[in-house]
Design goal:
Helix content: under 10%
Radius of gyration: 10 Å
Oligomer: single chain
Strand content: 35-45%
Largest sheet: 5 strands, antiparallel
Order of helices and strands: EEEEE
Distance between the termini: 24 Å
Number of strands: 5
Structural class: mainly beta
Strand order of the largest sheet: 4-3-2-1-5
Number of domains: 1
Length: 59
């Protein structure tokens, strides 16, 4: 579900904590492009993965 995710938001991939925190670059349909601190820019299929949104209070 990409309705809550917008460009500029900070996210984590729930199954790949080693990728670190990523910033959403674009959202087109179910395709979310995220620039992760340790994995670079990756295309995520939001039908298969629910990204964890990082709020300002999260580390």
């Amino acid at each position: 579900m990409t309705g809550l995710i917008e460009p500029g938001m900070w996210v984590r991939h729930p199954d790949r904590p080693d990728w670190g925190i990523g910033q959403v670059q674009s959202v087109i349909g179910d395709r979310v492009t995220v620039n992760f601190e340790h994995a670079g820019k990756l295309l995520i299929n939001a039908k298969q993965v629910t990204l964890d949104i990082i709020g300002p209070e999260d580390p």
